[in-house]
Structures are given as C-alpha cells and as structure tokens.
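Long-time lurker. I teach an intro course on protein structure, and each term I like to show students one example going from raw sequence to a predicted 3D structure in token notation. This year I'd like something fresh instead of my usual example. Would anyone be willing to generate the tokens for the chain below so I can use it in lecture? Attribution to the forum is fine with me.
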Amino acid sequence: MGSRIMHYCISAGLARELMINDDQFFLGSIAPDVHKNMNTPKSISHFMKEDNDGKFFADYLEFNHKYLRYMKDPFYLGYFYHLISDVIWVEEIYYKKIKWLPQPEKKEAQLKYYRDFWRLNGKLIDYYSLAYRPIDVKPIEIEEIDYRYLPELIKDLEVDFLMKDEAKAEELEILEFEEVIDVLEKTVRECVAISMNILSYSGS
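-- Reply from a regular --
Happy to contribute to a lecture. Here you go:
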C-alpha cells in the first residue's frame, strides 16, 4: 500500500532496532510487491482477507502461521513486516484520504496519491540518509510469489534510488511529508512490539 521506498525506510529502521544486517531482510521487505512483475493479483502475495465490515487487510498472522518454521530467516521476517506495514498504512493514510471518496473525486485523488509517491522517494531517501545496497536473490520457498521475478523488483528499487532527485522538489498534492514520517516511524515501533510478542511466542 505504501511505496517501495517507504518499505525500504521501514526496513532500514527495523534493521537498526533489531540489529539485523542482512540484505535478504531488505529483499523480503519489498518482496510482496513482486506481484506487479508477475502480473498476478495483489491479494495472493499480500494474504488479503476481508473483515466483518467489508474492509480488506493483509493477514500477517496467517503468513506467520503458514511459514512459522522459517520466521527466523531474514527474508521471511522482512516479508512479515511488509504485511504489517500495509495494514498500518491503509488505516492511517489510505482510508482517511482516499478510500471513501465518491467518484470521480476518488480516481483523481488516487492519481495525486501515486504522483506523491514519486515525489516522496527523494525526500525520504534524503531524510533518512538511505543508500541503495545490492541484493542477491536466492531460491525462496513461498507459495504466493515466484522468486525468479525478484531481480525485476530489485531493478525497480535501484531505479527509485537512481532517479530520486527527479521530482523531490515538487510540492505534494495529497500526502503530507510530516504525516508520512509519523506513519513510517509508528510502523517501526509497532513492528518491534509485534516482534516481542507474536514472534517470541511463536518461537517458544
């Protein structure tokens, strides 16, 4: 639900907090979005479910249950945090700004939203002093994605970094920089808290 760079920001924060130094953690943190490269439904790679109110959400608990035996692996951990991050982003940003708008206002808002993603790339990379780190792809046993498409996703991330200055000076249309920072940092805190609860319990 957030951009690749937003997920990269979150994974960088989590890597510091959890003392993880493994490029597979960063790869896992963007891996669910490889559905775009695979041309398959997002609902599969993101473990999407519908709640009693008709809202869709990424079911990170199902992912944790299904791949419990792998959850100490940095790639799977990064994937897990991506799903949590999307749940938070949808609740804090997408539902508040776009989801309930009437058409055609909603369609226009979505266009502004994705233009802002592009503008935010450079702003976020500079704010967090991020640097692109080369990532190798290894065979991964996740039924919901095909790891052979991951090099394409990594290339997309590399382009995000290479073109970070293209639009960063442009004004945002629908998102607010400070608001985005608040959500990203809240996400890091909540992911760390979940690490202390769900993952600790699962490993016991």
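Some talking points for your students: The radius of gyration is 16 Å. The mean pLDDT is 93.
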